[in-house]
Amino acid sequence: MAAPPTKRKPVFIKVDQLKPGTSGHTLTVKVVTSEPVKTAANRGGTRPSRVAECLIGDETGTVIFTARNEQVDLMNPGSTLILRNAKIDMFKASMRLAVDKWGRIEVTEPANFEVKEDNNLSLVEYELVSVVQE
After folding, report:
1. What is the greatest pairwise CA distance in the chain?
2. Which of 34, 38, 63, 100 could make an SS bond with 75 (beta carbons 3.0 to 4.6 A apart)?
3. Residues 6+ apart with CB under 8 A from 9
4. SS3 letters across the chain
5. What is the mean pLDDT, run by run of 10 residues, along the chain of 134 residues?
6. Dihedral (C-alpha) 47, 48, 54, 58: value to the nearest 10 degrees?
7. Which residues pair with 90 in a beta bridge?
8. Distance of alpha carbon 95 from alpha carbon 64, whole angstroms
9. Which of 15, 12, 1, 10 is nearest to 88 (CA)?
10. What was the pLDDT predicted at 27?
């Protein structure tokens, strides 16, 4: 019988290393603000889905995190979280960080860094440019 695959150690990155169209990120961040955006009826009609936009960050910068359903309850301002398998979604030409069903959000001990709020990566507008190969 083959040995079980060895687990890789997570590689933690900083907020200022996030780029459009990337995924699989693991970060330790603090929640700065959390604003409920909408509560909409679910397609199945069973329970409403909740969405909140949260400003999260570390000592290198901030980014807007889109929290959905149960994730909204974890997004308390001042709390420190570990985001696992987070991805970058583009919304109106700006970056949003999200954790889907393949990722995880864990509440952890308070971090000893101050959030750098003057470097918000979600305020940077990106333009999709097609590159023609010759």
Report:
1. 54
2. 34
3. none
4. CCCCCCCCCCCECCHHHCCCCCEEEEEEEEEEEEEEEEEECCCCCCCCEEEEEEEEEECCEEEEEEEECCHHHHCCCCCEEEEEEEEEEEECCEEEEECCCCCEEEECCCCCCCCCCCCEHHHCCCCCCCCCCC
5. 72 88 90 82 68 90 90 88 90 89 88 86 83 79
6. 20
7. 95
8. 7
9. 15
10. 92
Single pTM value for the model: 0.80
Note the pLDDT of residue 37.
82
Report how far residue 78's alpha carbon sits from residue 99's, in angstroms, rounded to the nearest whole number: 19
Q: The tokens of 134 are what?
A: 């010759």
Burial 61-89 (b: 16+ CB within 10 A, else e): bbbbbbbeeebbeebeeebbbbbbebbbe
Tokens of 1: 């019988």
Alpha carbon distance 41, 86 (integer Å): 25
Q: Which of 14, 40, 41 shows the shortest CA–CA distance to 25?
A: 14
Contact 96, 63 (CB under 8 A): yes
